[in-house]
Amino acid sequence: VSKFFPQEMTPTSSRSKALALFSIMIAAREGDLESVMYHVYHSTKNYAQERFGPFDMTLLHLAASSENTKLMEFLLEYLEVDPFIKDSKQKLPVDYASSGCKTLLLRKMNWESRKGILYT
Prior knowledge:
Blueprint lengths: L13 H17 L2 H9 L17 H6 L4 H10 L20 H20 L2
Helix pairs in contact: 1-2, 4-5
């Protein structure tokens, strides 16, 4: 059970859907891998494509500043979130990242660029 999403809430009510979106945003921003995984595994929503907040950020944008490399790996490898996607301010997730998360994102972006050249 997620600390942001109590088990007794029903996923069909509009209030619980709004709270679920809000809680996954907070979980990603705080680097809470367990809560993000809970939402992903217990939802039919495609969180890889979902946009959040006034700047249309992805989970990757939100998680980039969290310093949780495991969360970043989960988003990049399991959800296959595009590391090149820009928010409404034309910023990439790597623009919000620091230290380990920035290194991880840069490696992934480098690989994706090379993969595009190798396999096209």
